[in-house]
């Protein structure tokens, strides 16, 4: 690569891909000498990019945090992936990211070349998002960023954690990977105090703090981080197959709950729904959102739960609220 401008952009792209580059490795990737690499780094600094250098035998370069976010260099696939990711983030379970994701998406699409903008617009035009309408366990975006950086940099992490039984604890962990499964985020890491691998729900994690201590990655006792989390959650809850009939067309039912269920046509104006859930609360909630008559096929426990919810809702509807003086009418509701 002989053109200095093109080489400078390539250098910036490489520095953004990895936290730290050894000088000889970086020069080799660019196909230049170490001396030419130093000149290219100086050119980046003149453009306002804060590139730090470490001298010595193991010397190298890294792109340091600056006072302002510098322009990013993305190839075509990365730009489309970024736009798609921002669209998905608008319906994410990370607190406060919906509005900021929409703003960032608008900026990215605005400066995209026409050929890429068409790809993103085509994807958005044929995709119908079905955001989760029930209660969410929101993840702190700052905590998510801290954990992600610790995973990337192989840096030990300390944080407060609340177990499923509400028991608080402090954990010291070698973070391995972040996993999104269902509507939840998990951290997979090696728990130093317990001497074993663990998965941690990020909505139960608070005040993560990097310790500054680096570690050599351990071998995960699973095919990958996703398989490890799946195995752990399966041990806690056995998935339950659910089936019910809905007096509504399949297209209408898919629009409501198709993201979490398999919906089949079952005759004119009728559909059959199959779900696999960790518990029965979510299928019961989904049934309540359909606005149509439903017949439960399986399991019978779902019928019992719906009866229980029906009685509870009935009692709630029969309670007469007190008037402005705190008194309740003795007969019926006030007109």
Q: Can you describe this structure?
A:
- Helix 1 (4-17) packs across helix 3, helix 4 runs antiparallel to helix 5 (97-111) and helix 4 (76-89) runs parallel beside helix 6.
- It is built from eleven helices and twelve strands.
- The termini are far apart.
- Helices cover 41% and strands 24% of the residues.
- The protein is elongated, with a radius of gyration of 27 Å.
- Strand 10 (262-265) and strand 11 form a beta hairpin.
- It has four domains: 4-63, Arc Repressor Mutant, subunit A; 76-126; 141-236; 240-315, Alpha-Beta Plaits (2-Layer Sandwich), CATH 3.30.70.
- GO terms for molecular function: DNA binding; DNA-binding transcription factor activity.
Task: For the structure shown, list the relevant keywords.
single chain; 335 residues; alpha+beta; Arc Repressor Mutant, subunit A; 4 domains; five-stranded antiparallel β-sheet; four-stranded antiparallel β-sheet; 11 helices; 12 strands; elongated; disordered C terminus
SSE string, helices as H and strands as E: HEHHEEHHHHEEEEEHEHEEHEH
Number of strands: 12
Biggest sheet record: 5 strands, antiparallel
Query: How many DSSP H or I helices?
Result: 11
GO molecular function, one term: DNA binding
Pfam families: HTH_11, WCX, WYL
Keywords: DNA-binding, Transcription, Transcription regulation
Describe the structure in brief:
InterPro entries: CBASS_pafABC_assoc_protein, DeoR_HTH, HTH_11, PafC-like, Tscrpt_reg_HTH_DeoR_CS, WCX_dom, WH-like_DNA-bd_sf, WH_DNA-bd_sf. The protein is of the alpha+beta class and 335 residues long. Helices cover 41% and strands 24% of the residues.
């Amino acid at each position: 690569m002989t053109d200095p401008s093109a080489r400078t952009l390539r250098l910036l792209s490489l520095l953004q891909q990895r936290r730290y580059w050894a000088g000889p490795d970086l020069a080799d990737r660019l196909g230049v000498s170490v001396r030419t690499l130093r000149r290219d780094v100086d050119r980046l600094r003149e453009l306002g990019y804060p590139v730090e250098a470490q001298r010595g035998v193991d010397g190298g370069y890294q792109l340091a945090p600056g006072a302002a976010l510098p322009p990013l260099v993305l190839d075509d696939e990365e730009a489309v992936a970024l736009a798609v990711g921002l669209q998905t983030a608008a319906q994410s379970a990370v607190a406060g990211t919906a509005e900021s994701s929409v703003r960032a998406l608008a900026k990215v699409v605005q400066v995209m070349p026409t050929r890429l903008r068409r790809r993103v617009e085509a994807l958005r035009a044929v995709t119908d998002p079905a955001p989760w309408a029930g209660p969410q366990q929101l993840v702190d975006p700052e905590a998510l960023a801290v954990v992600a950086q610790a995973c990337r940099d192989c840096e030990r992490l300390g944080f407060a954690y609340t177990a499923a039984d509400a028991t608080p604890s402090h954990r010291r962990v070698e973070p391995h990977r972040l996993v999104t499964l269902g509507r939840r985020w998990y951290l997979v890491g090696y728990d130093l105090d317990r001497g074993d691998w663990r998965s941690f729900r990020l909505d139960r994690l608070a005040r993560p703090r990097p310790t500054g201590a680096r570690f050599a990655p351990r071998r995960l006792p699973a095919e990958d981080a996703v398989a490890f989390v799946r195995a752990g959650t399966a041990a806690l809850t056995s998935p339950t197959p659910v089936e019910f009939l809905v007096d509504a067309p399949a297209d209408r039912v898919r629009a409501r709950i198709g993201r979490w269920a398999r919906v089949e046509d079952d005759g004119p104006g009728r559909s059959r729904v199959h779900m696999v859930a960790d518990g029965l609360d979510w299928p019961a909630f989904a049934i309540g959102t359909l606005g149509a008559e439903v017949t439960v096929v399986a399991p019978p426990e779902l019928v019992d739960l719906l009866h229980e919810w029906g009685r509870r809702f009935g009692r709630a509807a029969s309670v007469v609220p007190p008037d402005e003086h705190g008194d309740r009418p003795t007969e019926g509701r006030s007109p």
